[in-house]
Description:
about 170 residues; mainly alpha; about 5% strand
Amino acid sequence: xxxxxxxxxxxxxxxxxxxxxxxxxxxxxxxxxxxxxxxxxxxxxxxxxxxxxxxxxxxxxxxxxxxxxxxxxxxxxxxxxxxxxxxxxxxxxxxxxxxxxxxxxxxxxxxxxxxxxxxxxxxxxxxxxxxxxxxxxxxxxxxxxxxxxxxxxxxxxxxxxxxxxxxxxxxxx
Length: 173
């Protein structure tokens, strides 16, 4: 709490105080293991312990192990929480992970970058100074199948590509 007060993370402090009983319960449970074959098997547990603010502050780390990527040794996937969650904990986790990774995959819904996507650029730049953001950032546009015409799709892709090039020198592929 002292760290949060120093950082003026009022939203986090409020969340912790409002959910103190739930947080104590989770901490008391200790480490938990949820066996799964498909992500759907643990969907509710993941949502509860990672995305639900009532529990997220009590969870130090969530790890998923799978044998489906047996040939890809040394690869670790981090799914950072949404930067727009309003919780300083999520922003700190994202900053730490994005600055320390070799590749960043971003799924973007809109053609122009939002404030939180600009933070992704900033956090990614904090890492290895010899590698540019464009060298390790991969952007995928989501929901493009909802665009009404091929022309609208083309415009959407062009606008997004230009915005990424302007802000992060990300080339269009």
